[in-house]
Sequence to fold (325 residues):
Amino acid sequence: MNFIEEAKEKALQGISLTKEEIIKLLEIPLGSAEDKYLRKVAYDVAMKKSSGKGYIWSAVGADYAPCLMNCKFCSFGEKWNIVKRPVHYSTKQIVEKVREFVEKNAKYVVLRTTEFYSIPKLLEIVKEIRKEVKGDYEIVFNTGELDMTISNLMVESGVSGVYHACRLREGTDTPFDPWDRKNTMNNVCRSGLNLISLVEPIGIEHTNEEFADNFLEIMKYKAVISGAMARIPVPGTPLGDVEKISDSRIAQIIAVLRLAGGDVVKDICVHPATPEALKSGANIIVVETGAIPRDINCEKDSWHGLDMDKANVLLKEAGYKVANK
Fold:
């Protein structure tokens, strides 16, 4: 287990792991003594690097609508004909959801949209949120591609970060040009906005080399938060019949990413959240409502029942102090 100890020491010293080192850790057999040790070490590192703080990432899906991009894992794809009745949340509805999240310790408030949602409209929503909901929280956008002009406008409007990812098998399971996705990540980085980017959507079909390459690409753009998001099989989509990856494997990937991020990645997020992943190095979990690309319904409450109260409990049970600073 010396190589796990070496990875731990590098993590504590702020040294990022190489592709070869990441793959070696990902190759550890699930359930083995080495696997259990890896997760323990990653949890210990997480507690030190996060100062024992856990955070809640709250997300409001603003528009439940057919999307022309037709990604193979996303329920919004127009070709899949899953969205029968589009729903567009009003500014007032979004503000009220944000208020609920902030009142229960959300550090991040994410406005998530389909690809071609109006950026000026999003910026107007931000203005209303800031006026109506007081608190020490960060507003993050998860929307379409961004150029430097738009990125700079976001900074001026009080947006602190952008979630964006060049996803696993981008250009194969999606119609996007990977260059466009990476260009947006670069623009976010150059603008001074915080970039948040997870390795996603992870399925049983992906390889250790894909995980390593994807994470190292995220590191290149200085993402302050990374982590792992599982691909959820959505009935009616092209990947809807492909088995979901196990929670244990996601937890193992979380442990590896926790050790791999050096001083670049400050926090590690897991979605969907599990106690296993939180005890393997993740310290951010997601609570989401509204339009959710991993489901066939528009969620009026919280996806899969994980609301703010339960999220607070999950983090505390994993040993974290829930924080919004």
